[in-house]
Amino acid sequence: MAHTEGNLEAPTRHPLDWKNPDFYNEQSLFEELERVYDLCHGCRRCNSLCAAFPTLFDLVDESPTMEVDGVNKSDYWKVVDHCYLCDLCYNTKCPYTPPHEWNIDFPHLMLRAKAVRFNDGAVKAGEKVLANTDAVGKLSTIPVVVNAVNSANKVKTLRKLLDKALGVHPEAKLPIYDSKPLRKRMKGHGDAGHNAQVAGETTGKVAIFATCFGNYNEPDLGEDLVKVLRHNQVQVRLVDQERCCGMPKLELGDLAAVAAAKEANVPALATLVDQGWDIMAPVPSCVLMFRQELPLMFPGDQQVEKVASAIYDPFEYLMLRHKEGALNTEFKQPLGKVAYHAACHQRVQMIGQKTKQCLELVPDTEVHTIERCSGHDGTYGVKTRSYDAAMKIAKPVVNRVKQAEADHYGSDCPMAGRFIEHGLADGSVTEHPVSLLRKAYSI
To answer: What is the pTM of this model?
Structure first.
């Protein structure tokens, strides 16, 4: 029977059938893993994206039959371990995604495998701690605790203990915690600014979903975003309350925790949308969570759909306003050459190179775009079992930054930017594109 060689239509996404009992049936899972692994083995177009595909192909090539049927089923998990759900294979490489009859959704198959393993109790306690960003963040903002945590991250003997306890590689660069998170900095300063100016689909009123990282680790990024938005006559506030968007739990396979986070976040965000606010998050993974993953987990949920249609990437928002003549282009300071890493979770949203376009509005500014994975990908870049693979993935990006000899470098994903900084190890410091824009405005 002949099959069509690749899609002739744009890929579509099926809802995640995670409430179906068969979703967690291990025999059913392994049958689907074998089917998809065999098709991937026959294609191999995704070999350059991450460590999941080289791991699969090595297992096949080293098996007695040199086919998937020769791979030990227990080794299937080695492929799952290297998938961090970036979605690039689905959106940029795979020719057999729906509506193709082979119906391959590799990231969501890996997510299903992670969920099966989580439900079976096979996920270690240390990994659960690393994914609990809310609890760790809140604890680390206590002044005495934050100083102890940040200091401990630099002590080799303590890092070895952290490796044993949580599986965190001793050489991995861990995020620092700020004792004055963004929420504390913004207290009493919400809703300030200008009268809302509608521009195209944007209302000119933005409620910022600070995100765990933007709140606890890099509140300066949140402050820069507020300054840039207000400089562009946008009214700004923080979301009244928030929990982690759920992406770390999704990557762990803890779908019940993702659902709990959705129940905490979505009603509050939907209320803000009803009140005329657009939603924005400074971390691409959080935008992707609300824009793609939750709608696929909860198809037909009107509140989820409402939030998904009203949440924006910062530069996507600014360029939408620029299209309507509502972006302030009176820049005071050129940026020179910028080595810009396009974050995977931003790329798969298919909004285009809005960050590059916006930065290049600054006079005497040249942006060199790097479209490769940074290797960090949530906790993947700090775990002992995947740190070496993450550094290998990051190496081409690090080399591109070196070759650019740029005045600035950074990524829309602050964690990716820090991982590139770690790979460079030359004393240079990553700068988020939002922070670069504030610098260009001299505000």
So the answer is: 0.89
